[in-house]
Amino acid sequence: MNHAAGKEVSADGLSVVLTSVSSDSHTWNLVVLQLVLEELGHQVHNLGACVPDELMVSECLRLRPDLVVVSSVNGHGFHDGLRLIRQVRSHAELAGTPMVIGGKLGIAGPGCDRSRAQLTAAGYGAVFEDGTGLTAFQSYVGRLAIGQAS
Amino acid sequence: MSVPDTGSFGDFVARAHRSGKLVVQPRMGVSDPAAMRAGLLATRKAAATAVGTITLDSYTRMGDNANARAALAAGIELNGYPIVAHDPAVTRSVLDGVAGPDFPVQIRHGSPCPEPIVAALIQAGLHATEGGPVSYCLPYSRMPLEDSIPNWARSCDLLAELRSTGAEPHVESFGGCMMGQLCPPGLLVALSVLECLFFRQHGIRSVSLSYAQQTNSDQDTEALLALRRLATHWLPDVDWHIVVYTYMGVYPRTPAGAAGLLEEAARLAVRAGAARLIVKTVAEGYRIPTFAENIAALETAALAAEGCLTIAGDAVDTGIHAEASALIEAVLDLGPDLGAALATAFRRGYLDVPYCLHPDNAGRARSYLDSTGRLQWLSIGSLPIRGVVGPTDSAKLTAAGLLASLSYVERTFDNASLEQEFHAVSDHSSGSTDDRDPDPGNRSPAARQSA
Ligand code: B12
User: Fold this and answer.
1) Which of A124, B102, B170, B404 has its CB 3.0 to 4.6 Å from that of B206, i.e. a possible disulfide?
2) Is the dihedral of CA B10, B11, B17, B22 positive or negative?
3) What is the reported pTM?
4) Could you tell me which residues belong to the region Disordered (chain B) (predicted)?
5) Domain tally for chain B?
């Protein structure tokens, strides 16, 4: 298992930080994703709307989560998400924490393969753009919980 | 450089209303100034009685002008117009010869810290904007109400100073929308009135009260009539009008479903005597709309409004007026300073917005959709409306249940439009004519209820 610096997944499921990006105030996405994760048996720390990069990083350093889920729908998610993961990855303690991103990430509808590739190159384990449905995400989280995803 | 005369927003709407025209307005904002000007010009030329909008981007809303400037420098397109990052002269050139007494332009932003935005719009010669200390804080930020309220008070003061120059600044409350969906109408109506009272306390003399179309058109009509009665009562000495927002929740994805919901909103606005409508486009469920999509929406709404009449008299009273009155009076009883009263009301849970994650929201009130698509209280927390609402009980919230409520309107209108397509195909293939209602709008439950 290479996530969360060797921390074992407890019987309470994964410890998940769920967060928006600094410019995005939408929260229905967060409310629904929290319920989805809890129904799969995981512990969710929902950081809410408009999370400043520094707050997000300090919460991750404090909580040392097994998974970070970034959700954004306002169209700035691609750029805010890239900036955010660079800050997270600059901390050695968080260098290997699995992170995924999803939502409506650009202002012109679902992005191109290149923008998804940029997000994964920056360190996101998966990109779930609008229209993907939640099943792919649920199975990703399931694999992570049994130690198969990275 | 002199500041252009961009006319009074409230006057323009009042004149249109008197001549029986519904004013229609888009949400529209792009980062490039030349494109922004083109969008305003296109709005002005639309076959409708329209006012212009400059919608601001999310960085500017958050006061993050560094990231707005960085995006401009890098040529990254934003989700709105960064009015603070652009030089005032640039914004004046966007408006020059476009905005005027016959085409007022409003700034729509969504900021709990609007002073730099208000300063920028004043420098550009504008004086109409939107928001409120509660409605631009809870759905739009994590900023404490204790900060948003004084920020909004100072912004109103800045705008009110314009009155000495002969201009009549206008502020629209976003209180009738809040989270966009699943908020029972009584609370939306109360918040709209309370925020307009706050604007009035801070020297604003021309306001608009908003109400966002919800899930059932009879309930919406009742809510709008209650809003009108309460505005008449509480705002006797200021210029006010009512603005309807086309549905602000999860929007239909089919073009016909999207247009059907917009037309329904236009009819609702006229029926209930509202003066202005903010439209939504066919792109709503997907991405920021193009100018062409926005102009088409303005024209669709104007056309739907034309064939419609304002109803005289009252709608069936299910208690929305009583509920809103109880909420307004409970807040006013907390003290003469409305800003302080609003903060106390949220602390005590007298105001509590369902499903709002903001740290200052109590989060004990919950809502649900009943079998007729009406929004009802599931639990009222500490809302002072027990006498009006009666007993409630609570059920467990699940992802599937919440998603079903969130998508109720989308499904209703998309299913109606898909069914219509299916009938078109089968009618065509069988070559038969039957007595089926030719008006597709009548197939949606919401439309049927309003007939
Ligand atoms: C409700 C709403 C609002 C409310 C939000 C209240 C709140 N605090 O939450 C209000 C009215 C306040 C609002 C404001 C704004 N909004 Co808005 N809003 C909507 C609307 C109508 C519905 C969103 C919603 O509630 N969906 C329900 C939830 C459950 O679904 P969801 O958000 O899509 O999330 C699901 C999936 O996307 C996916 N998902 C999301 N994230 C992730 C992450 C992972 C890892 C995974 C697996 C899946 C996933 O799963 C989620 C749960 O099912 C949408 C349009 C629409 N869809 O109809 C616009 C929309 C999202 N808004 C938009 C915008 C731009 C804004 C504003 C910037 C204003 C503006 N310029 O128009 C501001 C935000 C200010 C800011 N600082 O960012 C745009 C975004 C455009 C884009 N991406 O290209 C949209 C698409 C409308 C449009 N077409 O212009 N909005």
Assistant:
1) B170
2) negative
3) 0.94
4) 421-451
5) 1
